Amino acid sequence: MFKTYRRGAARLAAAGIATGLLAAGVMAGAGAAVAAPNDGTTPSATGATAVLGGIEKDKADQAVVNPGAKDEYDVTAGLFSMAVTGGGTIETYCIDFNHHTVDKATYNEVTWDNSTLKDNKDAGKIAWILNNSYPKVDVAAVTDTLKAAGVTLDHPLTPGLAAAGTQVAIWHLSDPGVNVQAKDSDAKALAEYLDSHAQTLEEPKPSVTLDPPAVSGKSGDRLGPVTVHTTADAVDVKLGADAPAGVKIVDKDGKAISGPVKNGTALYFDVPAGTADGTAPVTVAATTEISVGRAFSATDTSSQSQILAGSQSTTVTAAATLSWARKGPIPALSAQVVCAKNGVDVTAANQGDEDFTFELEGKSYTVAPGKSQTVTVPVQEDQKYKIDITLPNDQVKTFEGVLDCKTATTPGPTPTATPTNAPSPATSGSTTGGTDLAETGSSSATPMIAGIAIALVVLGGAAAFFFRRKKNTPTA
To answer: Helices 159-174 and 185-197 sit at what angle, rounded to 10 degrees?
Structure first.
């Protein structure tokens, strides 16, 4: 949605991450932590990573907010296009009216519970609208449906009017506190029909995920399992190029897996005894259509939440991290945004034979062999955050992202044309200041963090891990 008249009451939809999960690395024994090798991909465990390309002018039309009131203003309602990392294009509608959009913002596929649809009793009705209107259903078929229902049209529907009517119908369910109507009479009639006929559908399944996103164990043992969940017919699986010789992907019986695998496949990993302590990523990838109704949240800046309306065959990926050592603590670290907790769950699982100790948010935690511990770090809504995990050898793992789990109930201030650098209040001591950008599409690059980026973005792709020496490398 883009505002026609610049008014303070018109911040457009924005999202941060909802389900961002990342995992990386292992600290072997008392030695230095080993960074996970980077094979040049940025996989998302929930499938797709995409870049916002803006609203499609031929698939949009005008809507009016607060019609008849003194603060009435026009907005553009319609389809957005997004370019999927790795190839392909998707189309989306907005599901968070009172936030702005940021051109070229990066998004990841996320679950409803970890998006602005959390606790929305009408999320299933939005899915019905998406599956029974444009662009999933072509304009001619939408027109026939309206006529069959006794709706009289003043003129033929166009893609722009069909998209505008569909978007307005979705806003009525995603943002019920917003008074918005399509300007065109036929687009308005379509919105009214969709809202009155919508039924509740189940949430569509993710295109591909790996569960869990991190496993660890002793070299000489079989690590795993990591289970593949996908809606694709099959996915290709491979180890990172830097994986040591002899490390293999196998099934539960130890038989090597070399070709595509199907949904539900359990992956195990043989690490030969004597292999130097370290880590390696495993990735799965497929070319498939993403299910209509999947939510998308921004990962690198606060930008409007989106929901999938149409998809061609696109590239979807997921990743997990393997960690091994000969002795000592062998942790698998992961972090997951949990909207129900308004924060980030940091989990450390120790598969070694000694205690693993780490510091988080000024507190020290110790995980016994064979145990795991999860610590929730509160994070402020709609803000960038950065959380440090300090390891026993003074190395630090950092992950960062943007949290957006709630639709805005009231419009925020009019966005400025350039980013503001003033820090925002934070519920986590490591949260960074937010960026308020013009809705016309100025972009904001995530700051480069000093140190070497070593992690794989998984489940939502919402954060990036970094290793650095705490005493030598300053925090960005």
So the answer is: 50
Among the listed residues 381, 411, 416, 422, the one whose alpha carbon sits nearest the alpha carbon of residue 15: 381
The residue type at 12? L
> Does an H or E element contain 209, and which?
strand 208-211
70 Cβ partners below 8 Å, 6+ apart? none
Query: What is the rounded distance in angstroms from the CA atom of residue 162 to the CA atom of residue 446?
Result: 36
**β-pair type (106-110, 49-65):** antiparallel
Report the C-alpha gap between 51 and 45 in whole angstroms: 17
pLDDT given at position 455? 33
Q: Which residues contact 224 (CB under 8 A, 6 or more apart)?
A: 215, 266, 267, 268, 269
Lay out the sheet containing 21-23: strands in order across: 372-378, 343-350, 331-338, 21-23, 456-458
Q: What sections of 221-293 are H helices per DSSP?
A: none
CB 97, CB 180: distance < 8 Å: yes
Quote the pLDDT of residue 410. Answer: 61
Is pLDDT at 432 greater than 60 in this prediction? no
Residues 205, 231: contact at Cβ < 8 Å? yes
The pTM of this model reads: 0.78
Q: Which of 457, 5, 18, 37 is nearest to 243 (CA)?
A: 37
When the pLDDT of each residue in the chain is averaged and rounded to a whole number, the result is 80
Mean pLDDT of 174-197: 97
* pLDDT tens for each residue of 222-238: 999 999 999 999 999 99
